[in-house]
Specification:
CATH architecture of the largest domain: Up-down Bundle
CATH topology of the largest domain: Growth Hormone, Chain: A
Protein name: Transporter
Structural class: mainly alpha
Helix content: 55-70%
CATH class of the largest domain: Mainly Alpha
CATH superfamily of the largest domain: MFS general substrate transporter like domains
Organism: Trichosporon asahii var. asahii (strain ATCC 90039 / CBS 2479 / JCM 2466 / KCTC 7840 / NBRC 103889/ NCYC 2677 / UAMH 7654)
Largest sheet: 2 strands, antiparallel
Strand content: under 5%
Shape: globular
GO molecular function: transmembrane transporter activity
Membrane topology: Multi-pass membrane protein
Order of helices and strands: EEHHHHHHHHHHHHEEHHHHHHHH
Subcellular location: Membrane
Strand order of the largest sheet: 1-2
Number of strands: 4
């Protein structure tokens, strides 16, 4: 708004009635200058305007503009100008509260609370994902796809109830392990361990998604530490369980395992906390369920000034699907699906292959070697992902893994070559999960509402890839396309499986080259 020339009544004028002003010193009139005709009017900055109560023309004298031109109105002229409107006071208070809250938050990428969270999350990762290796190495094949998407929708839609979901998941999975001690048939074990135990995903999912709040610059390293827990569990727990089975028997072992699982994870769960508190919970659960239906009216009306929801008229529930229209989203999903279709085959088939070639140690030990090698692999790959672009790390990791399959496993009919293959495979392909943090960060751009959903989609796609790779590779083993070929290609008839594994992983790496983001 343009500056207004302030016209004030003669200083001697009385404030009552419309009579003549009271005698006193007079101020000579000065012709008013028009601001529109001022040569520097076009260069003036925006200034505040205000209204002055009108006076009779005969009683008004123009005061020189140079002495009464302000960036803001003088307090004596318009006292109300300096008082904020209620909405402005609310905005200022909100900004102050936000600044204070930000300063009070625990530090990221370090500090006692961040590392305590990571240690507790890694312990839960170790037990939840390591235990399937104690039942059978194919246990991961059954449970991998079901672990996370059991509670994905609930965790995403009701973040305020995350602790309750964790308790439910821990209770059900603990009951499944204890119930496994009393099974008498294989079908019972499928129910307890294949159907009920995957509810442990409700315990695990907050560990993986809240990590994005605690770590920013060191997010890749933190992911590497977290996911190395699977390698630790897959290496150590089978040895411990085997010793217990030989010492106290199956029933006592499963009872001890279930109790230890429940108690230890209950303690670890105490340290799984958010860094950024959620806003206060409002509304009943029934209203939240109604509001989650697309197009369903919401009972609460959003207040544009305070940023809060207030009771009143209904509004529409809107979902921002813009992220699904980005190339990063679809590229990441394709990379995950293709690599998952190949990454699981060696873990699934190396025990059978080792028995066919009479390797020593046996196939079970080879899988343990893979898990052990994945621990330093996850740490190194996570550390590298903090410093290199996602496309480079994806491409190199997939290229190395596909070459290892075609060479060390392809010609690995001896024990020494199989051991080398197990080490390098665990160090490369089984460590690919450490790149998830880099990919999810690029896809979501730190939008908290999407991180848990994208992570869950990645986990489900990995499960789909693992589940489909089993039947596909079983069919490929029945082919005779490589009969008579050298090494494992023809001697054990694994040639088609080797080509399929290398092709899917290499395809994922080729698509990963086009993943957006220079770093």
């Amino acid at each position: 708004m343009s500056t207004t020339t302030i016209e004030l009544a003669t200083l001697e004028r009385g404030v009552h009635g419309s009579g003549d002003p009271t005698p006193g010193p007079s101020i000579p009139p000065t012709p008013a200058r028009s601001l529109n005709n001022s040569p520097d009017h076009s260069r003036r900055t925006s200034r505040t305007s205000f209204d002055i109560p009108s006076r009779p023309p005969s009683a008004v004298t123009t005061i020189p503009k140079a002495n009464y031109e302000y960036e803001y109105p003088p307090p004596s002229a318009v006292p109300s100008v300096h008082s904020r409107r209620p909405s402005e006071e609310g905005i200022g208070a909100a900004e102050l509260d936000n600044d204070t809250a930000t300063a009070a938050l625990p530090p990221v990428d370090g500090g006692k609370r961040a590392w305590t969270f990571l240690a507790a999350a890694t312990f839960i990762e170790t037990t939840v994902w390591g235990l399937p290796y104690t039942h059978a190495h194919a246990g991961g094949y059954v449970a991998d796809g079901a672990h996370v998407h059991v509670d994905r929708a609930a965790w995403t839609a009701f973040p305020h109830y995350s602790r309750q979901f964790q308790i439910i998941g821990l209770t059900v999975s603990t009951a499944a392990l204890i119930g496994s001690a009393f099974v008498t048939q294989a079908s019972h074990l499928v129910i307890t361990f294949g159907v009920l135990y995957p509810f442990a995903g409700a315990l695990y999912l907050p560990c993986a998604t809240l990590l994005y709040e605690w770590f920013h610059q060191k997010r890749g390293l933190a992911n590497g530490i977290l996911f190395s827990g699977t390698g630790v569990g897959g290496t150590v727990l089978p040895i411990v369980i085997s010793a217990l089975l030989n010492g106290v028997g199956y029933k006592a072992t499963m009872l001890a395992l279930g109790i230890a699982f429940g108690v230890s994870n209950l303690v670890a769960m105490v340290f799984i906390k958010r860094r950024v508190p959620l806003p206060p919970r409002s509304g009943r659960l029934r209203d939240k369920l109604r509001g989650l239906r697309p197009g369903r009216p919401n009972r609460r009306l959003h207040d544009g000034h305070s940023g809060r929801h207030t009771g009143g008229l209904r509004g529409k529930w809107n979902v921002d699907l813009g992220i699904t229209r980005t190339w990063a989203f679809w590229c990441g999903l394709l990379v995950l699906l293709l690599t998952s279709m190949g990454n699981f085959n060696p873990t699934l088939w190396i025990p059978t292959f080792a028995d066919n070639v009479h390797a020593h140690p046996d196939g079970t030990a080879m899988v343990s070697i893979m898990n052990a090698a994945s621990v330093p692999g996850n740490l190194l790959l996570g550390w590298i992902s903090d410093r290199a672009s996602a496309r480079v790390t994806i491409a190199i990791n997939c290229l190395v893994a596909s070459v290892i399959v075609l060479t060390l496993w392809g010609f690995g009919t001896s024990s020494s070559l199989l051991i080398l293959f197990s080490i390098f495979w665990g160090f490369s392909a089984l460590s690919f999960v450490s790149l998830w943090g880099k990919m999810i960060t690029r896809i979501c751009k730190d939008r908290p509402s999407w991180i848990s959903l994208i992570f869950s989609m990645f986990a489900v796609l990995r499960g789909v890839g693992n589940l489909t790779s089993g039947p596909i590779s079983s069919k490929l083993l029945q082919t005779q396309a490589f009969k008579g070929a050298a090494g494992a290609y023809g001697k054990t008839n694994f040639g088609a499986v080797l080509i399929y594994t290398a092709a899917t992983i290499f395809g994922g790496g080729a698509i990963g080259i086009f993943f957006p983001g220079s770093k």
